[in-house]
Amino acid sequence: MVKMGNPESISAEKVWSVLETVTDPEVPVLTIIDLGIVREVKVEDSRVEVIITPTYSGCPAMDVISMNIRLALLQEGIRDISVKQVLSPAWTTDWMTKAGRDKLQAYGIAPPQYKQVVCEPDAFAKEEAIQCPRCQSYNTRLVSQFGSTACKALYQCNDCHEPFDYFKCH
Amino acid sequence: MKNTINYLLHLADNSLIMAQRLSEWCGHGPILEQDIALSNIALDYVGQARNLYQYAAELKGEGTTEDSLAYLRNDREYLNCLLVELPNGDWAQTVLKIFFFSSYQYYLYQQLRQNGDERIAAIAEKSLKEVSYHLKWSSEWVIRLGDGTAESKRRMEMAIPELWSFTGELFEPVEYESGFTDPAQLKDSWNKKVETIFHEATLPVPAVTTWFQSGGKSGIHTEHLGYILAEMQVLQREHPGATW
C-alpha cells in the first residue's frame, strides 16, 4: 500500500535510506549506494532531487535505475521527484563501498582493485593480479577485457579453473 | 552557437556510425569473447553519441531530441568522417579501424577535457575512460595480428592501404571545428602512437604525405552511409515516434 507521506517529514537521511533499497538491475546484489553512483540528494520543502552519475556512458541500466529511484520514493509518499544525471566528476570504482565489494565477492564476482592500473591505454601492460572469488587464488588470467556488461572483464582461475567476472577498475 | 551544434553533431555522428558498424559483428565475431568485446565497444559509442546528441538537441531547441537527430537526418546532414562509415571488411580491417579511431579519440578527448564549455569537458572526461580501453584492446590486436602468423600479417598488410587514405580527414579541420582542438598537435600525437604500435607489430608505417580522402565532415559521404542510415532509420521513418 502506498503511504500518504507528510511532505514536512521528508529529510535527506530518509531519502538516502530509501535509495539503499534500490538495486542495480544487472548486478542485483549491489544497491546504488554500494555502487557509488548517487552523488547528491537535495531536499527542498516537499521537492526531492537525486543526482546520479552513470558507470559507463552507454550503461543501459541507467534508465531503469532512474525509474526505480522514482518508484521507490513514490512508495514513500514523495511526489515531487526529479532524478538528474551528471557526468562530471566521472564515476570511478574507487567510489564503491566496502560493503559493496564484500557483496560482489560473495556473489562470485571479483571486486574492483583499489589501485587503478588498467585504465592506461598501453598495449600489453602488466596485468593486475585478480583474486579468484571462489578459491581466493591470485593465480588467475585475463580471458577478455570485455565481459557480460560494460563494467566487467572475464577471468579464469588457473588453480580451480573457475571462469569468473571481474568488476573492472574504472 | 551554430558551430558548437555542428561540432557536437560531428562528434556524435562519428560515435554513432562507429557503433552501428560494429554492431554488425554481433553474433559473427571470430570467438565469443571478441564478439562481446565489439558489442561492448559499440555500446560505449552509443552512450557517448547520446550524451552529445542530448546536448546538441538542447542547444538547437524547437522540439529537437536525441532521437530526431539520430533517426530523422539525411546522409547530407550527417557530419561524420568517412573512416567510420567504411564497411567492416575482415577482422584485421575492423581491428585496424578501431585502432585508428580510438587513438584519435584518445588524444581528442584529452584536449576537449580542458574545454571551456563545462558540458563538453564533462562528456570528454567520461568518454576518455572508455576510449582508453578501446585503445588498449585494439593496439593489442594490431600487434597480435601484425606480429602473428603469416596469414594474420598478410591480412593486416592488406587492411592498411584500405583505411590509410581515410585517416587524414581526422586532422583536416572544417569551419565548425575551429577553436575546439589543436589539430596539428592531435595529428602529431596520433602519428606517434601509430608509429609505436606499428613498429611493435612489425608493420610498415605508410607515408604521412600521401593524398587523403575527405568530405564526410561537410556532409559529402561515400555510397556506404546511405545504406547504414536506411537500416538504422527505417523503423522511425515507417512508424514515426515508435517506442519499445
Q: Can you describe what's shown?
A:
The complex is a heterodimer of chains A (170) and B (244). By secondary structure, chain A is of the alpha/beta class. Chain A has 4 helices and 7 strands, in the order H-H-E-E-H-E-H-E-E-E-E. Helix content of chain A is 22%, strand content 22%. The relative contact order of chain A is 0.15. Chain B is mainly alpha-helical and 244 residues long. Chain B contains 9 helices and no strands. Chain B is globular and about 55 Å long. Chain A binds chain B through residues 54, 56-60, 86-91, 118-125, 143-148, 150, 154, 170, and chain B through 33-34, 36-37, 40-41, 43-48, 50-51, 106, 118, 121-123, 125-127, 129-133, 135-137, 139-140, 143, 197, 200.
List keywords for this structure.
heterodimer, A: 170 residues, alpha/beta, four-stranded mixed beta sheet, three-stranded mixed beta sheet, 4 helices, 22% strand, B: 244 residues, mainly alpha, 9 helices, 66% helix, 0% strand
